[in-house]
User: Which sequence fits this backbone?
């Protein structure tokens, strides 16, 4: 798709980043007054409306309809994405403890059914106030959406190498792959931190990219999908992860799909270190050598 529409569609590089890391932050074109009004409405709510967020807070539609948000959602979930029933207002009051790391469950789907090579569902997380490091930001682990893990095996995990925090400006929207590992962190401040979360889904497969695709950027995308490794992976999993990233691209790119293995992936100079044998493994181990 080209930029004919007025949506803030993502470009190839941004889609590649999402595939690699599993998240993107969007800053909607809404005013500070708008976000303030959401905070006021949240403060006045007598209780958490559970999944009935839009009924309790109709103004929230403004964020879902923002062109940048719609553009990012269209880019990642296709033209006909839908907001699923449910969602949750996550209020993180002062002096809470952090949550355990987890992947969200969904409509009876268990951890064994996760989409390790596709983008079928996203989580939308909207922060109406600034969130700093003390205020209990959400923590997430880049690249973890391709890792199937049971809740039991995650419950004892604490700080993970490469973890990233949603330290964001008021009004920011964090879009994540549904299966990303995440958790609320403890709020050490004296301020309440709100976050409104909605699940969204793809309803149809793409015949062509639903983002602002430029065929000339494919080599650069390929290099990133081949060569960038989120830090949590053990060495033996690098190759599997590379293939899952390319398969994810192919599952959403329609006519812009690429061969699963590039020539470089199959051969090339011997590596300087380790037992690897291919050029892509050399890039993996010594990315500074290109
Ligand atoms: O409140 C947060 O930062 C994250 C909470 C969350 O996503 C969850 O409980 O699944």
Assistant:
């Amino acid at each position: 798709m080209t930029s004919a529409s007025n949506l803030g569609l993502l470009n190839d590089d941004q889609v590649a980043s999402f595939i690699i890391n599993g998240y993107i932050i969007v800053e909607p074109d809404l005013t500070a007054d708008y976000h303030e009004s959401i905070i006021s409405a949240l403060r006045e709510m007598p209780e958490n409306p559970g999944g009935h967020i839009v009924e309790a807070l109709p103004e929230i539609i403004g964020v879902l309809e923002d062109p940048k948000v719609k553009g990012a959602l269209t880019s990642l979930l296709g033209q006909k994405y839908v907001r699923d029933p449910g969602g949750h207002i996550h209020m993180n009051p002062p002096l809470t403890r952090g949550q355990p790391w987890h992947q969200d469950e969904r409509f009876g789907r268990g951890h064994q059914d996760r989409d390790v090579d596709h983008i079928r569902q996203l989580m939308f997380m909207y922060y109406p106030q600034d969130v700093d490091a003390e205020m209990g930001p959400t923590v997430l682990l880049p690249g973890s959406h391709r890792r199937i893990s049971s809740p039991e095996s995650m419950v004892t995990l604490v700080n993970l190498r490469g973890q990233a925090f949603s330290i964001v400006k008021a009004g920011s929207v964090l879009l994540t792959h549904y299966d990303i590992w995440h958790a609320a962190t403890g709020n050490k401040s004296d301020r309440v931190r709100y976050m409104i979360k909605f699940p969204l889904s793809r309803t149809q497969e793409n015949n062509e990219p639903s983002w602002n695709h430029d065929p000339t950027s494919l080599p650069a995308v390929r290099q990133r999908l081949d060569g960038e490794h989120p830090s949590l992976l053990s060495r033996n999993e690098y190759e599997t992860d590379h293939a899952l990233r390319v398969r994810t691209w192919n599952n959403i790119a329609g006519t812009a799909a690429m061969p699963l293995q590039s020539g470089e992936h199959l051969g090339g100079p011997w590596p300087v270190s380790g037992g690897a044998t291919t050029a892509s493994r050399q890039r993996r181990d010594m990315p500074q050598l290109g």
Remarks:
- The pocket of 2-oxoglutaric acid is lined by residues 90, 92, 99, 104, 138, 182, 184, 195, 197 (CB under 6 Å).
- The longest helix spans residues 238-253.
- The longest strand covers residues 193-201.
